[in-house]
Write a structure and sequence with these properties.
The protein has 201 residues and is α+β, with helices and mostly antiparallel strands. The protein contains 6 helices and 4 strands; from the N terminus they run ααβαβαβαβα. Bound molecules: flavin mononucleotide.
Length: 201
């Protein structure tokens, strides 16, 4: 732990696992490289996510500062609002296969399963002492061309992974945000007993 580390554990209504409470979408990335073993553990966590018919539709295209030119190319798909992620030593493009491999039928759950695998990664990243940020703000068309993604895959999100740096390195629009408490709807707004609208407690 250093002074750079902002922690924002969830204020929960009921007790949950520490790792779930601890995970948050930090933006202040250090340029410090991520150890390959840590990165592989994070990707291993994705591997063990559940998926419809065990299709495992997730695919990850990984860029690291081992190859700065390629990392720069990957950064070029990010929208300006996500420029903070250009400091991250690891960028990943997360995509999902749209069809089942055995019968070619459309897999309507492909994005669901990609999300589950991504969350596994998120939790493992925090377990490894790293931060991670998922980003929907990027140019999908450009990513498809640049990363040679075929039509059978749907581009999901860009993911940044790295060590946390001081909030002072953030663009102004994100400096204050870094300290804002994490907020969520109460359980009563999204959990219902037996029918929509009927409270569980
Ligand atoms: C699919 C997805 C897309 C997101 N896209 C962006 C994005 O483009 N830029 C950004 O700064 N944050 C992005 N976020 C982060 C969310 O804003 C963040 O998860 C949410 O505010 C909850 O905060 P927490 O993750 O710290 O609990 C995204 C998160 C998800 C799951």
């Amino acid at each position: 732990m250093t002074d750079n580390i902002i922690t924002k554990p969830a204020q929960t209504e009921f007790p949950i696992h520490e790792l779930i409470a601890k995970r948050w979408s930090a933006r202040a990335f250090s340029t410090r490289p991520v150890e390959k073993t840590k990165l592989l553990s994070i990707l291993e966590a994705a591997r063990w996510a559940p998926s419809s018919r065990n299709e495992q539709p997730w695919r990850y295209i990984v860029f690291t500062n081992d190859n700065p030119d390629k990392l720069k190319e990957a950064q070029s798909v990010l929208l300006e609002i996500n420029s903070y992620a250009k400091r991250a030593p690891v960028l990943i493009c997360a995509i999902a296969k749209k069809s089942y491999t055995d019968n070619g039928n459309h897999n309507r759950l492909h994005f669901h399963d990609l999300g589950a695998a991504n969350e596994n990664m998120f939790l493992e990243a925090f377990n490894q002492g790293l931060i991670m940020h998922e980003m929907g703000g990027f140019n999908r068309e450009k990513a498809m061309g640049l990363f040679r993604i075929s039509e059978d895959y749907e581009v999901g999100i860009m993911i940044a992974i790295g060590y946390q740096d001081s909030h002072t390195i953030l663009p102004d629009r994100y400096k204050e945000k870094a300290f804002m408490p994490r907020e969520r709807k109460p359980l009563s707004e999204f959990v219902f007993l037996e029918e929509i609208g009927k409270e569980i407690k």
